[in-house]
Automatic annotation (TrEMBL):
Documented EC number(s): 1.14.14.18
A Pfam family assignment: Heme_oxygenase
Record carries keyword Protein transport: no
Enzyme class: oxidoreductase
Localization terms from the record: Plastid, Chloroplast
Signal peptide positions on this chain: none
Entry's Gene Ontology cellular component terms: chloroplast
Coarse class of the protein's main subcellular location: plastid
SUPFAM superfamilies: Heme oxygenase-like (SSF48613)
Protein name listed in UniProt: heme oxygenase (biliverdin-producing)
Domain of life, per lineage: Eukaryota
Family label: Belongs to the heme oxygenase family.
Region (Disordered): 78-100
Organism annotation: Dillenia turbinata
Length: 274
């Protein structure tokens, strides 16, 4: 019997029939999901040493690369109204269907200001590249800071006064700064979720809010120079390459940060309804 510390290449699942509770590919039966430790649950598959068989991929999405693993965890943290793979119960106001939201321009401005602080922070961190691989994440074409600056100028020209950043944005920016120095894997989790969430649910929210309160004005925040799906694909490939150098523990640690990413972003989204 091999120990779990044996090299992955020597490990293979003892049987293809993993008990449902321990099977990371099964739908999670626990209503408290995602309040579980991804690391603990994902590392319990029974293993046996053999060199004869090819090692099996044991983590959902693993075969496609690490971004797919991050996506798998993120999609479960949506409600089923937000996305079809979502499993979370609706608790917070921003988790209600966007079609039922009653946004205000002032609230939306607070959201845009706090979002800008988050993107300013992420973009400054990767520009500075204190951790060498952050340099890979520069100039992806997905940057939002300058676009948001233009949008805030537009609101100013319309006669709105632009608020100072509020606590959800300030707290998230501090968390990102700190993680970027002490915990690069957790930082990458936030980086991935912020940019990909905006390209998916974020765009839909932008459209619906513009319909309701901006006379369908399309903000720069929701426009990209170039083909968005290609830009996203390029970033997926970069992130997959970065994570190729990580241990399984580092990957699991990154995945475990997803819940916090939803919490911080959810608080900023909630500003739209404030
Ligand atoms: C009202 C809130 C939200 C709505 C309505 C929403 C909706 C969606 C939808 C419709 C998708 C696309 C699903 C698909 O590809 O089939 C998606 C993807 C995604 N969402 Fe959300 N979402 C919301 C909030 C969030 C938050 C707070 C986060 C994390 C910070 C997040 C992270 C993601 C990620 C990482 C993807 C995958 C994108 C990709 O693979 O390209 N979402 N979301």
């Amino acid at each position: 019997m091999a120990s779990l510390s044996a090299p992955i290449s020597q490990l293979t699942l003892k049987s293809t029939k993993i008990p449902k509770f321990n099977n990371p590919f099964a739908r999670n039966p626990n209503p408290n999901f995602p309040k579980f430790s991804y690391h603990k649950k994902m590392s319990v598959a029974v293993v046996a040493a053999t060199t004869a068989e090819k090692p099996k991929k044991r983590y959902p999405g693993e075969a496609k690369g690490f971004v797919e693993e991050m996506r798998f965890v993120a999609m479960k943290l949506h409600t089923s109204d937000q996305a079809k793979e979502g499993e979370k119960e609706t608790k917070e106001p921003e988790e209600k269907p966007v079609s039922k939201w009653e946004p205000s321009v002032d609230g939306y401005l607070r959201f845009l200001v706090d979002s800008k602080l988050v993107y300013d922070t992420l973009e400054r961190i990767v520009e500075k590249a204190a951790v060498p691989f952050y340099g890979e994440l520069k100039n992806t074409g997905l940057e939002r800071s300058e676009k948001l600056a233009k949008d805030l100028d537009w609101f100013k020209q319309q006669g709105y006064s632009i608020p100072e950043p509020s606590s959800p944005g300030v707290e998230y920016a501090c968390h990102l700064e700190e993680l970027s120095e002490v915990d690069p894997q957790a930082f990458v989790c936030h980086y991935y979720n912020v940019y990909f969430a905006h390209s998916a649910g974020g765009r839909m929210i932008g459209r619906k809010v513009a319909e309701k309160i901006l006379n369908n004005k399309e903000l720069e925040f929701y426009k990209w120079d170039g083909d968005l799906s290609q830009l996203l694909q390029n970033l997926r490939e970069k992130l997959n390459r970065v994570a190729e150098n990580w241990t399984r523990e580092e990957k699991n640690h990154c995945l475990e940060e997803t819940e916090k990413s939803f919490k911080y972003s959810g608080e900023i989204l909630r500003l739209i309804l404030s």
